[in-house]
Fold this sequence. Notes:
This protein is mainly α. The chain has helices at 3-11, 16-36, 40-49, 58-67, 83-93, 100-107, 118-129, 138-145, 149-166, 173-187. It has a domain at 3-134: Hypothetical protein af1432, CATH 1.10.3210. It is globular.
Amino acid sequence: MERQEMIDRVSKEMPERRWRHTEGVMATAIKLAERYGEDPERAELAAILHDVAKYWGIEKQKSIIVDNGLRGDVLLYDKELWHAPVGAWVAEHEYGVEDKGVLDAICYHTSGRSGMTKLEKIVWLADYIEPGRDFPGVDAIRTLAESSLEEALLAALNATISFLAAKEKKIYPLTIEARDSMQSANKGG
């Protein structure tokens, strides 16, 4: 599928406000990819599709997860996580994306995971720091992202976990694993 056709289709899957967010993620992912030596086209492709299923009904998302044997454990956690594995499935089956790295970047853009690839880190962080995001601490993480992808990602994961804990939400284990993996890599254990 051509890029513009994909953009036209994906933009119709969400409210205009969310599409503006997606455009911000696209621009940020390209910038991070160029800065840190990843293919900007792959980063942009994952960014275009990262929220493709976010506004689908919960029952539809659940059905896709169950019927296709996707990460079923995600159903035990916040519904905000569900659109990521569903989005990866949709990217592959409805948009023809064959690049496993791009599909994984979509699949893990909400949770992260241990041993994230550079592309996964870029898409996760781009989603977190895109210009439309405005919450305490985001500017500091944007500044970190200018000099270290890993330090910025670790700070963002720490902030995410702290936010979820303060809200007394269950924290998806892959997010903890992502944070611990980054902590070990960045601090030597």
